[in-house]
Amino acid sequence: MKGAFMMQQFPEGFLWGGATAANQLEGAYQEGGKGLSIADALPGGPERFKIVDQPDFDWSIDEDKYTYPNHKGIDFYHHYQEDIALFAEIGFKCYRFSIAWSRIFPNGDETQPNEDGLQFYDRVIDECLKYNIEPVITISHYEMPLNLVTTYGGGKNRALIGFYERYARVVLTRFASRVKYWMTFNEINSALHFPVMGQGLVASNGGNEMQNRYQAWHNQFVAGAKAVAIGHQLRSDLQIGCMLLYATTYAYDANPVNQLAALKENQAMNHFCGDVQVRGQYPLYTESLMNHYGFSFKDLEVTDEDLAVLAANPVDYIGFSYYMSTAVNVTDKSLATANGNLVGGVTNPFLKSSDWGWQIDPTGLRIALNELANRYNKPVFVVENGLGAVDQPDANHFVQDDYRINYLREHIEAIRGAIADGVQVMGYTPWGCIDLVSASTGQMSKRYGFIYVDLDDEGHGSMKRYRKASFEWYKRVIGSNGEKMK
Predict the structure, then answer these.
(1) What span, in angstroms and rounded, lies between the C-alpha atoms of 119 and 321?
(2) CB of 316 within 8 A of CB of 322?
(3) Would you please indicate which residues are annotated as catalytic (active-site) residues?
């Protein structure tokens, strides 16, 4: 049996590639007719979430007080040809990127799109296709137009359904003939703990009220389902998935109290948003979840038409990010807590941690793949995974990032194991395939890429691109379809 596992092949057509987000690498935040987005108003630095959670936070940009690294990113807007050529050199079969909503509708509520923005993504898509790289597009990745927050109050306003539907119709109609794979909202479930990026909700506009977060989710579910309907009307083989932040969740021990707490955490964080988008209906535990926060499902603005749209338009696959697992313990308050990708938990004594305290657990990825595939019986796509680390380039800007290679190797082996378990895995796109601004900390120093970008946290540097050791390693992995892992 062990031999069979070791010989397990990745399927033909497996989508090897990498992933980025518009707001973290494009820069050019006021060029080409682009409007301001949520990301443009988020200060840089590890305290960014504490800043936006202050009751007087008003989304104004104060460059005398804060830095805004997203404004510059790594200037992909002007370097996309160079960067995509490097992705082609690695051998990417696909490239997951996002469209900046405010490049297409600068304020979010216009009736006509910005043609300059559409033409930019025309060029990016065509550049990918020139190298036979399949575009995988996230329609909204943490960059809601800022006007939709300041004027309409963010995702809790049902008007957002129509604004997103109009935006999705425009980009799907424009690009569907060239782009087969899409996702609706990035890490939609992250709003359980941090609603600012996905929903535009902070303390000052009701973000601390859980009913607002669930209302925003409902609006996103309906908007996403409408996008699925549009995509399927445009192209019969077009695939639109949801995208979840997935942190495999364990009970710390066999205490039934902790086991029940882990089940509840799984429902709230890992399963709820997926259940609605994949199954097309709210799960049985919905009322229990909402009651826990002091409100009822009937308190939400939900119409019969909404429920019919959800039922008729489930997503085609489950895209998800996986960086770490989490452990739940409610019986011992003395245990140390762990950091994580917007979620934490207690420290798991069986795991090591990254430079930022994220617990490294490749076996958790195999578990996640099995959980998702067997829960939904649909294809799954690992669209984010990677190691954020402090890279130390030598005098020639070369980074010997064996730590990243080891991390990725172990997670790819976990995917191989899940495929042996019978899971239909569509592909693997490691996060931040080129260094970019971190979403969680607003830093350049938290690097993920195969390609080093000479830029620091203060925005100083040449912006030149350099291949890391992981560049050639991943090239061998893709070229051998996962056979050459050393």
Answers:
(1) 29
(2) no
(3) 384
CB 137 within 8 A of CB 179: yes
The fold adopted by the segment(s) 2-479 is TIM Barrel (3.20.20)
Structure tokens at 419: 């495929």
List the beta strands (DSSP E) in 259-339. 317-321, 326-328
Residues 6+ apart with CB under 8 A from 107: 35, 145, 147, 148
Strand partners, 134: 94
The answer to whether 70 touches 24, Cβ cutoff 8 Å, is yes
The structure tokens listed for 20 are 């980025």
What is the residue whose two structure tokens read 């019978």? 422
Residue 111 is given by DSSP the state: S
Rounded distance, CA 100 to CA 84, Å?
18
For the chain, the structural domain boundaries read 2-479
Q: State the Cα–Cα distance between residues 1 and 321, nearest whole angstrom.
A: 29
**What are the pLDDT digits (tens) for 63-113?**
999 999 999 999 999 999 999 999 999 999 999 999 999 999 999 999 999
Query: Distance (Å, rounded) from C-alpha 107 to C-alpha 340?
Result: 33
> What's the pLDDT tens digit per position in 383-393?
999 999 999 99
pTM above 0.90, yes or no: yes
Distance in angstroms between the alpha carbons of the first and the last residue of the chain: 23
Residues in the chain: 486
Q: pLDDT tens for residues 256-265?
A: 999 999 999 9
Q: How far apart are CA 306 and CA 287, in angstroms?
A: 18
Task: Measure the CA–CA gap between 476 and 453, rounded to whole angstroms.
Answer: 22
